[in-house]
Amino acid sequence: MTQFFTLPLRLSNALLVVGERPVLIDAGSPGEGKRILRGLSTLGVEPQELAAIVLTHAHTDHAGAALALREASGAPVYLHPADGDMLARGVMGPLRPLRFRHRLLLPIVDHPFPGLRADKPLEDGDRLDGLGLSARVVHTPGHSAGSVSLVFDDGDAVVGDLVIGGLLGGLIAPAVPRLPYFAEDVPLLKQSIGRMLDEAPGVWRLGHGGPVRSASVRRRELQK
After folding, report:
1. How is residue 143 annotated by DSSP?
2. Which fold has domain 3-222?
3. Residue 203, Cα to own-chain centre: how many angstroms?
4. In what order do the strands lie in the sheet with 13-18?
5. Could you report the per-residue pLDDT of 62-104, keeping only the tens digit for each?
C-alpha cells in the first residue's frame, strides 16, 4: 500500500510517498533543505534511502532546495523537460496572476533559487514502477509548461499546483479546491484540470493546502 506524508513548508507542501521505496515529491523553497531532511528523519527516512526527488514543476517554492537535497541524498532529480531551462537557471518563467489582487503575492514568490540540471526526464505516460511507485506521469501544463501530475493506480493523484486548496496556503478551508494564483496559460491549465478529472477520480494531493477530492473539483467547475 502506498503511503503519503505531507511535509508542510513555508510556502508550499513537499510530500514523502512511500511505496516499495521512499520518493520525495517537490523540494520547497531555497534554504528549506534542512527542514525537509528533518521531516524525513522524523518519518524514519534517511536521505540516502530516497529513490528520487520528483519535481511537479520548477517554481521557486517547489524546486528551491532541490540542489541541496540532491547533494545530501544522492537521489536523482526528475522533471519534465519543458521546465528544464527554469530549473537550470534557477529563475522562474512568467508569472501571470489570475486576478489583479494576486499581483501582491509576486514579491513573496518570485525569487531566484540555486539552479541545477535534472538527472532524469518525466514524460507523459511514463511509469514510475522503477521508483517503487504504482503510478504514471500525466503532463498537466498551464501553471507552467512542464507541470506534471502523478496518477496512482488506485485513482489518487499528486497534482502540484494544478489546483490549490483553500486560502493563504491552505490555512483557511484547505479542502476547498481553487485555481492557482498564477498560470502561464490559463486555458491550458483548465484543459489539464479537465484531463485529470478523467484520469484521477480519487483524492488529489496538492502543493498548497489540500488534499481535495476530484469530485469537489468537478463540482466547482474549475475546468471551465
Report:
1. S
2. Metallo-beta-lactamase; Chain A (3.60.15)
3. 15
4. 3-8, 13-18, 22-25, 52-54, 77-79, 120-121
5. 999 999 999 999 999 999 999 999 999 999 988 888 876 767 6
